[in-house]
Specification:
heterodimer; A: 2 domains; two-stranded antiparallel ribbon; B: 341 residues; Immunoglobulin-like; five-stranded mixed β-sheet
Chain lengths: 630, 341
C-alpha cells in the first residue's frame, strides 16, 4: 500500500515540476541545476576540457622524449620562460608536465569525467528514479569539482610552476619548498585543489549509494540491476572508503609543509642546512597515498567495465554471460582493491615479509579480472554483433584490459618487480589497463548514450574513423613502451643520453611520440562529431540501440523528473536479448512476464502467477488512490 | 605571408573534408542505409578487427625477435638470473593467454557479425565454465606467485656473513660512496654533522669510521657477496643497477639495504658484448627533482685479487683531510692514528 502511495505522490510532485520547468531560467537550467542529467553533462563537458589539457601536456613532454634535439622556440609564446635559451624544455617544467598530466587524467578526466558523468546520468534513468536522492548535494558535488579544477588550472600559470613531484607527490620532495620549484605555491594549490576534489567525490558517492539503495523503482531488485549500476554502486563504495584516506595523507602533508610537524620528514639535510625534523617516515605517506591510490585504479576502471558490459550485451544481441559471476567478480575486486596497495612499494624499503603478503593478495585480484574477460569473450561468442562505435570502443576496452592486465602479473610479483619498478614497463602497464581502458569506456559510454543525452545521433562513420585511429594509435604509443621498460628505461626521465644503458631507442621513442601526436589529433574528429551532432545530428529514435534498460523508455528529451507519467515498473532482468520464442530480439525490462508466455523459461513460468497477483493488487490500489484524490 | 598561405590551405582542406562529410551523410540518408543494421560498414569493421589482429601480431613478433638483444640487458648478478628466468616464464604464460584471448576477441567479431537472417543464441550462464576459469587462473597464478615468493625471500634475506659493505648516499643530484675500510664496519653517521668537508655526515668520533674511505665509483669483487647500505640526504632516491637487477629506494631517516653477488667483471662483460666502453651503471629511479635523470655512477666489477689490491691502496677520509678529527678529543685522535697504521 505504502509503495503505491509513494508513487502517487511522485506523480503529483512531478506535475509541480512541470510548472517550474517553464520558470527555469538559464542559470537554474544550465548552471546551478539540480537535474542529474544536466549535472552529468556538466561533468562530461568539464571532463572533456581537462582531457584536452591533459592530452596536450603529454604531447609537450613526448616532444622532449621523441625529439630531444628539436628547437621548441615556436612554443615560447605559450610557455614563455619554460623554454630555455637553447630552445629546450626546462627540466623542472618537464616534471611539472608529467605531474599535471597524471593528476588531471587520473582525477579530473577518468574519475570525475567518467564516474561523474555516467553515475549521474545513468543511475536515476536505469533504476527508474526521478532524480538523485539529493539534487542539491549533487549540484554541490559538481561545483566542488569545478572549484577544484579552477584552482588546479591557476596553478598551471604560476611563475615557479605547478606541483612537479609526480602525480603521487611523495614527500620529502613535495614537502620541501627548497627541493624543487614546483614544491612551493604550486604544491599548495595542488593540495587545496585535491581537497575540493575529495569533497566533490564524497558528495557524489554518498548520493550514488543512497540513490541505488533507496530509489529503485517497483520490481527493480538488486538481481535485476543492469551491470552499469552495479559498477557505479561499487565504485561509489570504494571511493567513499578510500578518498578520506587520501585526505588524511594530504592533511598531514599540509601540516609538514606549513606548520613544522614531522609526519613524513626525518633526518634531512637540504639547501646547506640540516632540518630540525626527526622521527617522521616518508614511507608512511606512501602507505596512506596508495591506500587510496590503488582503489583509485578500480574507481577509474569499474565504471568503464560496467558500461562495457551493458554495451557488449546490447550490441551482441545476447545476454551478458554470467551476470551473477560478473557481480561476484566486481564485489571481489572491490574488497581486494583495499588490500593490495603495498605492491606499489615493494622496493620502497618496506619490510620484505610484508612485501610477500601483498604479492599473494595482488595476484588473487587477477582472478576476478580474468573471470570478467572470459565472460566478455563468451558474450561475443555466437552473438549477432552490431559494430556501433560504442561496441567497437567496448571491444577495444577488453583488448586493453587483457594487455594491461597481463603485465600486472609481472609487476605484482615482487621478485620480477625489482627490475621493472618505476620503468617504462609500469608506464605501459597502467596506461593500457587503467588509462586507455577507462578512456575507451568513457568514449563507449558517450557514443552509446549520446542519443539519450541530446536526443540526436552521433555520426557512426566519423565514429568508426575515430575508433580505429585511436585504437591503433593507443597500441602504437604504449606497446613499444614494454620494450623500453624491459630494457630498464626509468620513468620521469627528462633525457636518456646520460646513461649508456638507456642511450638507445631514439627511433622507438620518436615513433611513440609521432603516434601520440596522431592519436591526440584524432580526438578532434570526436570533438567535431560531438558538438556538431549535438545541434545538427540526426534526430534519434526513442530506443536507437533496441536496448532493454529503463532509460530508453523515457521521452526523447526527458524533463527534470525523467518520466512524464508514472515511473515504469520492472518485471525482468535487463539482458533478455534474443530469447528463444520471442518475436523481437530484445524484451525491455518493463514488459511483464505474463505478456510473453511464448518466450518464458520454465522457472519464469512459476513467477507469472505471482506477477499477475501483484499487478492486480497494484491496480486496486491505484483505483483506490484515484478515488481518494477526486 | 607564408602564415597567410598556410592558413588559406588549412581552411580549404577543412572545407573539402566538410563537403565530403556532408555528401556522405546525404547519400546515406537518400539510400536509407542509416536505418539498416547489416551494412557495409558493419562488414568492414568486422573485417578490420581481423586485419588488426594479423597486422599487429606480425609487427609484434618481428620486432620482439629483431630487437631481443637490445631490450634484454645482460645479467651480471646471481639473483638476476633467477628473476629473469621468472620474468620469461611469466612472459610465456601470459603471452600464451594474451595471444589466445586476442584471437578470440578479434575473430568473434568477424565470425559473428550481424546478419538479419540469424539470431544470437540465448546463453546467459554456465556455472561449470565459471568455475573452470576461476580455478585455472588461480592455480596458474599460485604457481607463479610461489616461485616468485621463494626468489623474493632469498633475495631479501639478510646478507651472508662477511659481505662487502658499501654505503650509497643519494642526494640532489648524485650518489656519494663510502667504504668501511679494513675493519669492514661502516662508522656511524648523523645528518646533523653534514657540512662542506663532511658531505656524508660521518661521525668521526666513532672508531669504526676512522678507516672509512670514499670512492668515485663503486668497485666490487666478482663472485663475492656485496651489501649496499643505502640512505638519502634530502629527498627520496632509488638505487637502480639495471645489469645487477637491483633496485632499492633511498629514504631520508630510514636506511635500506640490498645485497647481491656480481657474476661478471666489467672486463668480461666488455669482451662478451664486444663493447670496449661498456660500464655497469647506477641510476636513480625515484623522481627527486630537476636533475633526476643525471644521477649516474659507475660500478666496476673486478677480480677478487684486484679488488683487495685496490682496497688497500685507498686513502681514508682522515688521511686526505686530517682536519676532520681536529676538534675531537685527544685520545680519539690517537686511536685514529693507530687505526691508520
Amino acid at each position: 500500500m505504502s509503495v503505491a502511495n509513494v508513487s502517487a505522490h511522485d506523480v503529483s510532485a512531478h506535475d509541480d515540476h512541470h510548472d517550474h520547468e517553464h520558470e527555469d531560467g538559464f542559470i537554474t537550467k544550465y548552471i546551478f541545476t539540480q537535474d542529474h542529467k544536466m549535472i552529468g553533462k556538466q561533468f562530461l563537458v568539464t571532463g572533456m576540457f581537462w582531457a584536452l589539457i591533459g592530452g596536450f601536456l603529454s604531447i609537450l613532454f613526448r616532444l622532449q622524449l621523441g625529439f630531444p634535439d628539436m628547437n621548441l622556440e615556436f612554443l615560447r609564446p605559450l610557455l614563455g620562460g619554460w623554454i630555455t635559451e637553447t630552445g629546450q624544455l626546462d627540466p623542472n617544467f618537464y616534471l611539472a608536465l608529467v605531474t599535471m598530466h597524471g593528476t588531471i587524467m587520473v582525477f579530473f578526466v577518468l574519475t570525475a569525467g567518467l564516474s561523474g558523468t555516467f553515475s549521474n546520468f545513468l543511475i536515476p534513468l536505469q533504476i527508474g528514479a526521478r532524480d538523485m536522492a539529493s539534487g542539491f548535494m549533487n549540484m554541490l558535488s559538481y561545483w566542488f569539482f569545478f572549484t577544484s579544477g579552477v584552482i588546479m588550472f591557476i596553478s598551471l600559470f604560476l611563475e615557479r610552476g605547478p606541483a612537479s613531484g609526480g602525480w603521487v607527490v611523495y614527500p620529502p620532495l613535495s614537502a620541501l619548498e627548497q627541493a624543487m620549484p614546483g614544491s612551493g605555491l604550486g604544491m599548495t594549490l595542488w593540495l587545496v585543489s585535491m581537497t575540493f576534489f575529495i569533497a566533490s567525490s564524497l558528495l557524489g558517492g554518498i548520493n550514488y549509494i543512497t540513490t541505488v539503495i533507496n530509489l529503485r523503482t517497483k520490481g527493480m531488485s538488486f538481481a535485476r540491476l543492469p551491470l552499469t549500476i552495479w559498477a557505479f554502486f561499487l565504485t561509489a563504495v570504494i571511493g567513499l572508503l578510500s578518498f578520506p584516506v587520501l585526505f588524511s595523507a594530504a592533511l598531514l602533508l599540509v601540516f609538514d609543509r606549513s606548520f613544522g610537524t614531522s609526519f613524513y620528514l626525518s633526518d634531512i639535510y637540504i639547501g646547506g642546512e640540516a632540518l630540525p625534523n626527526t622521527g617522521g617516515s616518508a614511507v608512511l605517506y606512501q602507505h596512506l597515498f596508495w591506500f587510496l591510490g590503488h582503489p583509485e585504479v578500480y574507481i577509474v576502471l569499474l565504471p568503464a567495465l560496467g558500461i562495457t558490459s551493458e554495451i557488449i550485451a546490447t550490441n551482441s544481441r545476447k545476454p551478458i554471460f554470467g551476470y551473477k559471476a560478473m557481480i561476484i567478480s566486481m564485489l571481489g575486486i572491490t574488497i581486494l582493491s583495499f588490500v593490495v596497495w603495498a605492491h606499489h612499494m615493494f622496493v620502497s624499503g618496506l619490510n620484505p615479509f610484508l612485501g610477500s603478503i601483498f604479492m599473494f593478495l595482488t595476484l588473487i585480484i587477477a582472478v576476478p579480472s580474468a573471470v570478467k574477460v572470459f565472460n566478455y569473450l563468451t558474450t561475443l561468442w555466437r552473438g549477432n554483433l552490431r559494430f556501433t562505435t560504442a561496441m567497437m570502443f567496448s571491444i577495444g576496452l577488453v583488448s586493453f584490459f587483457i594487455s594491461g592486465g597481463l603485465t600486472g602479473i609481472f609487476l605484482g610479483n615482487s621478485a620480477i618487480d625489482i627490475q621493472l619498478h618505476d620503468t617504462y614497463f609500469v608506464v605501459a602497464h597502467f596506461h593500457l589497463v587503467m588509462g586507455s581502458a577507462s578512456f575507451f569506456g568513457l568514449m563507449a559510454g558517450v557514443y552509446h548514450w549520446f542519443p539519450k543525452m541530446f536526443g540526436r545521433m552521433m555520426d557512426e562513420k566519423l565514429g568508426s574513423i575515430h575508433f580505429w585511429l585511436t585504437f591503433v594509435g593507443v597500441y602504437m604509443v604504449f606497446f613499444p613502451m614494454h620494450y623500453i621498460g624491459i630494457a630498464g628505461f626509468p620513468r620521469r626521465y627528462y633525457s636518456w643520453s646520460t646513461f649508456s644503458f638507456t642511450d638507445m631507442y631514439t627511433d622507438l621513442n620518436m615513433f611513440v611520440s609521432v603516434a601520440a601526436i596522431i592519436t591526440f589529433a584524432a580526438q578532434f574528429i570526436f570533438l567535431f562529431n560531438f558538438f556538431y551532432s549535438m545541434f545538427r545530428g540526426r534526430i534519434a529514435s526513442l530506443n536507437p540501440w533496441q536496448s532493454n534498460t529503463l532509460e530508453w523508455t523515457t521521452p526523447l528529451h526527458p524533463k527534470h523528473g525523467n518520466w512524464p507519467g508514472e515511473i515504469p515498473s520492472v518485471y525482468r532482468w535487463p539482458y533478455d536479448y534474443s530469447k528463444p520464442g520471442a518475436k523481437e530480439d530484445f524484451i525491455p525490462q518493463t514488459v511483464p512476464l505474463s505478456v510473453t508466455p511464448e518466450s518464458n523459461l520454465p522457472h519464469e513460468e512459476k513467477l507469472v502467477n505471482l506477477e499477475k497477483e501483484i499487478i492486480a493488487e497494484e491496480e486496486q490500489v491505484l483505483v483506490a488512490n484515484e478515488y481518494k484524490g477526486s | 605571408m607564408y602564415g597567410f598561405l598556410i592558413a588559406i590551405g588549412v581552411v580549404l582542406l577543412l572545407s573539402v573534408i566538410w563537403m565530403v562529410y556532408r555528401i556522405q551523410t546525404l547519400i546515406s540518408v537518400a539510400k536509407g542505409s542509416d536505418k539498416k543494421i547489416q551494412t557495409t560498414s558493419n562488414k568492414v569493421n568486422a573485417a578490420l578487427f581481423v586485419v588488426f589482429l594479423v597486422g599487429t601480431f606480425v609487427l609484434m613478433t618481428w620486432y620482439s625477435i629483431k630487437e631481443f638483444s637490445n631490450y634484454q640487458l645482460p645479467i651480471a648478478s646471481e639473483h638476476g638470473v633467477i628473476t629473469d628466468r621468472l620474468f620469461w616464464v611469466t612472459m610465456a604464460v601470459t603471452g600464451f593467454i594474451f595471444i589466445l584471448t586476442h584471437i578470440l576477441l578479434f575473430w568473434f567479431p568477424y565470425k559473428y557479425q550481424y546478419r538479419t537472417d540469424r539470431r544470437a543464441s540465448y546463453y546467459p550462464d554456465n556455472n561449470k565454465l565459471e568455475v573452470i576459469w576461476t580455478l585455472v587462473p588461480a592455480v596458474v597464478l599460485a604457481l607463479l606467485v610461489i616461485s616468485g615468493w621463494r626468489a623474493w625471500t632469498d633475495i631479501t634475506d639478510p646478507a651472508p656473513e662477511g659481505a662487502h659493505e658499501i654505503e650509497l648516499l643519494g642526494y640532489q643530484f648524485a650518489w656519494e660512496i663510502r667504504y668501511p675500510g679494513k675493519d669492514n664496519i661502516l662508522g656511524d653517521f648523523d645528518y646533523r654533522l653534514i657540512n662542506a668537508t663532511n658531505s656524508r655526515g660521518v661521525d668521526f668520533s666513532d672508531q669504526n669510521s676512522r678507516d672509512d674511505f670514499p670512492s668515485q665509483s663503486v668497485v666490487i669483487p666478482k663472485g663475492e657477496p656485496v651489501l649496499f647500505k643505502i640512505r638519502a640526504r634530502d629527498v627520496l632516491h632509488s638505487v637502480f643497477a639495471p645489469h645487477m637487477r637491483l633496485k632499492m629506494d633511498a629514504v631520508p631517516g630510514m636506511p635500506t639495504r640490498f645485497w647481491f653477488v656480481p657474476t661478471k667483471t666489467t672486463a668480461e662483460m666488455r669482451a662478451e658484448l664486444g663493447d670496449e666502453e661498456f660500464e655497469y651503471e647506477i641510476a636513480c629511479t625515484e623522481v627527486c627533482g630537476s636533475g633526476h635523470f643525471s644521477m649516474r655512477r659507475v660500478i666496476t666489477v673486478v677480480e677478487p685479487e684486484e679488488y683487495r689490491k685496490w682496497f688497500s691502496e685507498q686513502k681514508t677520509f682522515v688521511e686526505s683531510n686530517p682536519s676532520l678529527v681536529l676538534d675531537l678529543p685527544i685520545e680519539d685522535k690517537k686511536l685514529a692514528e693507530t687505526a691508520n697504521q
